[in-house]
Automatic annotation (TrEMBL):
PROSITE patterns: PGM_PMM. This is phosphoglucomutase (alpha-D-glucose-1,6-bisphosphate-dependent). Its EC number is 5.4.2.2. Its cofactor is Mg(2+). It is an enzyme of class 5 (isomerase). Residues 18-156, 189-290, 299-411 form the Alpha-D-phosphohexomutase alpha/beta/alpha domain.
Length: 547
């Protein structure tokens, strides 16, 4: 067959709203499937990002509906845009942390990660494209802003007329002079995990009776979890549930929280629960940690992992610092203080950790949104968190509940919850935030029930490495005694607006460390409505999801 490999320039016109959010461009599949929509965005990426002629590009996704189609489009466009090599995961699969690792390991100039993370998939659901830079991390705001500006003026894109690449067979093919290498999506990542953690200790604990259950939610971590947990660590076959990635995640939201991973919670709080339970999300970067009869909040998990990280070989030499996003509880700060290392508070979005990690200023990072990770890659990493927990459980020989109780007895406990109000009319959500912003100045000194406001502000962050300023990153109301409420609009939704209300109360070592979170936060929940007029603005008296 003779293939015309001439580069074609296709005329196009801009689409409104191709502005990347907290983590890439996320839209409904029907939006992405419009002619030229994905092409416009991909060309805008190629036009803006740093790369040499003949550079390597990594492409992979979480296997959701449209994944294979957009990968074929991206491969053709990469060939037409002067890339020399594309590395793509077999079956179009690469978890987000695995993509980050592959970019770093093979010296790629960057990667396209096709995912809408924990958002549902299928013809009527969500799709997304994110660009990661050469350090393996999400493109910083300066790059995503340049890409967005380019999308508003784009008038053509480049492609080649070549047949689809066989994504299911490992090996190399040529696409218009560019090499396309289909790689095993699991192998490099699994080898990295073996280097970081004491697999022998975990295997010994498993042989000694340590049990777990892992819910892959029919998302990307299934193949990784089968290989690492069952084959390499020896957990019994069947430990990994829902391990086959499906285009629609079996009709569920691949969001590891109490609502969408309800089966896991039922198992872990039921009779005969295993020692440890975990889940990951659509693209494998989030994690949910549940011990037998105990849920560990992501904020607490970050703090407990940081406090015990020295038990894993990779972190035996100590941590350089700990970073958390602003809405994440301050539990990790207390660990940093005890370890005498710096603590950083960044805006929401993993991209804000990249500079700190590259500069060697911190080792472990985490977010309340179920993300934890370290300097081994530049993304949060769901299985990494699971393996660090397993490493700690194996070395300490204690239950999750014992480890948590000892942690709180030493550091005190940050009771914490996030209330999400999803799919709100955008105008109502914007009005709530505007009114609240206007009232911030008058809040200090006012009492809401037993709570007295000490300070209130709109969070802004100056990156200590490059000096860039990110303003309007959430509204904070801080109370006397260390409790606080944070209000933010989500940057990852695809339907209306989502209001996130983050509630935190600190209870010192001598306080009540074993209370119900909802009881401990009751005054804050009432104050949140009084301060922001949630019910008045939105008509909602209850959040859609509590995490
Ligand atoms: C993304 C970002 C995270 C962020 C989360 C929630 O996670 O990578 O840094 O915390 O969204 O963001 P928001 O509160 O704006 O919805 P993921 O797992 O969706 O890629």
């Amino acid at each position: 067959m003779i293939i015309d490999t001439a580069i074609a320039t296709i005329a196009t016109t801009p689409f409104d709203g191709q502005k990347p959010g907290t983590s890439g461009l996320r839209k409904k599949v029907k939006v992405f499937a419009q002619p030229h929509y994905a092409e416009n965005f991909i060309q805008s990426v190629f036009d803006c990002v740093e790369r040499d002629e003949g550079a390597t590009l990594v492409i992979g996704g979480d296997g959701r509906y449209l994944n294979r189609q957009v990968i074929q489009t991206a491969i053709r466009m990469a060939a037409a845009n002067g890339y020399g090599r594309v590395l793509v995961g077999q079956g179009g699969i690469l978890s987000t942390p695995a993509a980050s690792h592959v970019i770093r390991q093979y010296g790629a100039s960057g990667g396209l990660v096709l995912s809408a993370s924990h958002n549902p998939g299928g013809p009527d659901e969500d799709f997304g494209i994110k660009y990661n830079i050469a350090n393996g991390g999400p493109a910083p705001e300066s790059v995503t802003e340049a890409i967005y500006i380019r999308t508003t003026a784009i008038d053509s894109y480049l492609t080649v007329a070549t047949p689809d690449v066989d994504l299911d067979t490992i090996g190399e093919t040529d696409v218009a002079g560019m090499a396309v290498q289909v790689i095993d999506p699991v192998a490099d990542y699994a080898a990295l995990m073996e280097r970081l953690f004491d697999f022998a200790a975990i295997r010994a604990a498993v042989a000694g009776g340590l049990t777990m259950t892992f819910d892959a939610m029919h998302a990307v971590t299934g193949p990784y979890a089968h290989e690492i947990l069952e084959r390499r660590l020896g957990f019994a076959p069947g430990t990994v549930k829902n391990g086959v990635p499906l285009e629609d995640f079996g009709g569920h939201h691949p969001d590891p929280n109490m609502v969408h991973a309800a089966d896991l919670f039922a198992t872990m709080f039921g009779d005969d629960a295993p020692d440890f339970g975990a889940a990951s999300d659509g693209d494998g970067d989030r994690n949910l940690i549940v011990g037998r009869g105990i849920f560990v909040t992501p904020s607490d998990s970050l703090a407990m992992l940081a406090a015990n990280a020295h038990l894993a070989p990779a972190y035996a030499g100590g941590l350089k610092g700990i970073a958390r996003s602003m809405p994440t509880s301050a539990a990790a700060d207390r660990v940093a203080a005890a370890l005498n290392i710096p603590a950083f508070e960044t805006p929401t979005g993993w991209k804000f950790f990249g500079n700190l990690l590259d500069a060697g200023m911190c080792t472990i990072c985490g977010e309340e949104s179920a993300g934890t990770g370290s300097d081994h890659v530049r993304e949060k990493d769901g299985l990494w968190a699971v393996l660090l927990w397993l490493n700690i459980l194996a070395v300490r020989g204690q239950s999750v509940a014992q480890i948590a109780a000892e942690h709180w007895a030493r550091f005190g406990r940050n009771y914490y919850a996030r209330h999400d109000y999803e799919a709100l009319p955008t105008e109502a959500a914007n009005a709530l935030m505007a009114d609240l912003t206007a009232s911030l100045e008058a809040l200090p000194g006012r009492a809401f029930g037993p709570l007295v406001v000490e300070a209130a502000d709109s969070f802004a962050y100056t990156d200590p490495v490059d000096g860039s300023l990110s303003a309007n990153q959430g509204l904070r109301v801080l109370f006397e005694g260390g409790s606080r409420i944070v209000f933010r609009l989500s940057g990852t939704g695809t339907e209306g607006a989502t209001l996130r209300v983050y509630l935190e109360r600190y209870e010192p070592e001598s306080g009540d460390l074993a209370a119900q979170t909802s009881d401990m936060l009751a005054d804050l929940i009432a104050a949140a409505d009084a301060i922001a007029g949630i019910t008045r603005h939105t008509g909602r008296s209850q959040p859609s999801v509590i995490t």
